[in-house]
Amino acid sequence: MRKRERILLVALPVLILAILTGWFLFGQPPQAVSEPAPPATDIVTPEELPNNLLVIPEVPLGPLVIVLTCFVALLIAQRRSKA
């Protein structure tokens, strides 16, 4: 097989996987909130928080996609310069 055909055979499944991932992430309707927000009088003070509280920060997808795109572009640029 030629080089172009191999690149297309690799790029097509990656593109399909990216489209399906985007479809599943952003194609779902928003979840309904079942319980109401707590009233303002139930504020927890820092002294009442547990010591081993695990917090997982939210990572926005936009900056991750931008970094991944720049990395892929760098790999493509490096590969073309060798030829």
Give the SSE map.
Blueprint: H1 3-26, H2 61-82
Can you describe this structure?
The protein is mostly helical. It has a domain at 1-27. Helix content is 55%, strand content 0%. It is elongated and about 70 Å long. The two termini are 18 Å apart. The mean pLDDT is 78.
Q: Could you list some keywords that capture this structure?
A:
83 residues, mainly alpha, 2 helices, 55% helix
Q: What's the overall average pLDDT, rounded?
A: 78
Residues in helix, %: 55-70%
Basic shape:
elongated
Number of helices: 2
Question: In total, how many beta strands?
Answer: 0
Largest sheet descriptor: none
Proportion in β-strands: under 5%
Distance between the terminal alpha carbons, to the nearest Å?
18 Å
What is the subunit arrangement here?
single chain
Quick overview:
With 83 residues, the chain is mainly α. 55% of the residues lie in helices and 0% in strands. The two termini are 18 Å apart.
